[in-house]
Amino acid sequence: MVRDLFERIEQDKGPLGKWADKAEGYYVFPKLEGPISNRMSFNGKKVVTWSINDYLGLANHPEVLKADGESAKEDGLAYPMGARMMSGHTKYHEQLEEECAAFVAKEAAYLVNFGYQGIVSAIDALVSKDDIIVYDMDTHACIIDGVRLHSGKRFVYRHNDIESCEKNLKRATRMAEKTGGGILLVSEGVFGMRGEQGRLKEIVALKQKYNFRLLVDDAHGFGTLGEGGRGTGFEQGVQDEIDVYFATFAKSMAGFGAFFAGNKDVIQYLQYNMRSQMFAKSLPMPMVKGALKRLDMIRTMPELKDKLWEITNGLQSGLRNAGFDIGTTQTCITPVYLKGEIPEAMAMVHDLRENHGVFCSIVVYPVIPKGLIILRLIPTARHTMEDVNETIVAFSAIREKLENGTYKKVAEEMILE
User: Fold this and answer.
1) Are 336 and 319 in contact (CB under 8 A)?
2) CA 167, CA 210: separation in Å to the nearest integer?
3) How many CB atoms lie within 10 A of CB 12?
4) Which three-class secondary structure state does DSSP give residue 242?
5) What are the percentages of helix, strand and coil residues in the chain, rounded to 5?
6) DSSP code of residue 239
7) 39-42 and 45-49 as β-strands: parallel, antiparallel, unpaired?
8) What three-state secondary structure class fits 402?
């Protein structure tokens, strides 16, 4: 008997999906409204917003709005039509690639439409069935999905654990000697959940002992770290040793799209072998011209990055002084670690948003282990120290209720409703 495909779906919607009826529209798929800024509207109230990846405050900067608007008016959202290889190529796409490559000190660059799609497709293109992938267990979902496409062997090492990394490089080396393949090591420049930098300097040092190539996803490092915002490789002094560098326009650039950078041969290979780009419509002109403006502002306006770090340092030192565990973040990403289950987290976040006017992302199982809650804050150049102080006061109030069982009782009543 053949089972109805949808029977399983109807019976089990997954660890997050089972909360959909109570969570959707508020805890998940929430609607933040109004201009992108440090304070936006949610559920009819103004809230301090810590969930927007607009690190440098460019989303609604007058110069950015002007560039986006002028291109939309002149070019429309459809131009250029078609995939880059066929009819969607322009001199502005070339210019953006050249400027991105120069900014991150690489020989060449290649634009992709979306970061997630790009990483998945790049990993698929870079390795064959005989090659071996070694990757950090805490890498972003896009990297995990790219690794899953790999038909060959892969080894995962403990997060930022160089001893574990080397152990798995040894295993990969033995395997590659049998298959005749090569080794691709994948790490993030900045781990988006914990806020830790990848240990790129130590990883690069392992190249003296093992033959591998290094792919770094620097979505959160680009624009926020290193000299002039050039990324984690510059921050750690190892940019030259990163073989394939990736950054997205969705964070510091406040847009969409992304790019890969490396030596000319590898980038040209990606241009002709990344299926997600070969068969996808080109990046629309307003985003290309808009990205050129954004990149120019990052280069010429260092005060944006300075303001971001002023807020970041104030927020993180304030939270630590108030007794909060923010882990070992070395970047702008600020995780606040608390203990509790999903229903308690829902009750706590409702209180935080409705009664304290603070909106931040909530991270629970299955993204992190059961029993742990992360309130994830993303500071931007638009935030103020008033925002910081209000948030710390609010967090102190909700922590007390979480610890004394108030939210557990509220959660039980929610479940019974």
Assistant:
1) yes
2) 11
3) 10
4) coil
5) 45, 15, 35
6) G
7) antiparallel
8) helix
Alpha-carbon gap, residue 231 to 224, rounded angstroms: 7
In three-state secondary structure terms, 350 is: helix
The model's pLDDT over 368-411, given as tens digits with 9 standing for 90+, comes to 788 899 999 999 999 999 999 999 999 999 999 989 889 888 77
The residues, any chain, with a CB within 8 Å of residue 373's CB and separated by 6 or more, are 337, 338, 339, 340, 344, 345, 348, 362, 363, 364
Q: Which residue has the tokens 């080894």?
A: 155
Position 222 scores a pLDDT of 97
Q: Whats the size of the chain, residue-wise? A: 417
Cβ burial, residue 163 (10 Å; 0-12/13-18/19+): exposed
Phi, psi of 245 (to 5 degrees): -105, 135
Domains of the chain, start order: 12-59+302-416 (3.90.1150.10), 76-300 (3.40.640.10)
Q: Which two tokens stand for residue 271?
A: 């241009």
Residue type, 8: R
Q: What pLDDT was estimated at residue 236?
A: 97
Residue 170 one-letter amino acid? K
Residue 149: strand, helix, or coil: coil
Across-strand partners of 216? 187, 245
Which is nearest to 184 in space by CA: 107, 128, 114?
128
CA distance 358 to 382: 15
Contacts of 12 (CB under 8 A, 6+ apart): 18
Alpha-carbon gap, residue 217 to 254, rounded angstroms = 17
* Burial degree of 295 (CB within 10 A; 0-12, 13-18, 19+): buried
Q: How far is CA 127 from CA 170, 213, 222, 279, 318, in A?
A: 18, 11, 25, 20, 45
**Angle subtended by helix axes 385-403 and 302-321, to nearest 10:** 30
Q: Which residues contact 25 (CB under 8 A, 6 or more apart)?
A: 31
H helices of 18-161, in order, are: 20-23, 62-75, 91-103, 115-126, 141-148
DSSP for 200-225, please give it.
HHHHHHGGGTS--EEEEE-TTTTTTS
Look up the pTM and report it. Answer: 0.92
Tell me the mean pLDDT in the region 305-330.
Answer: 96
Give yes or no for residue 416 having a pLDDT over 70.
no
Give residue-wise pLDDT tens across range 41-52.
Answer: 999 999 999 999
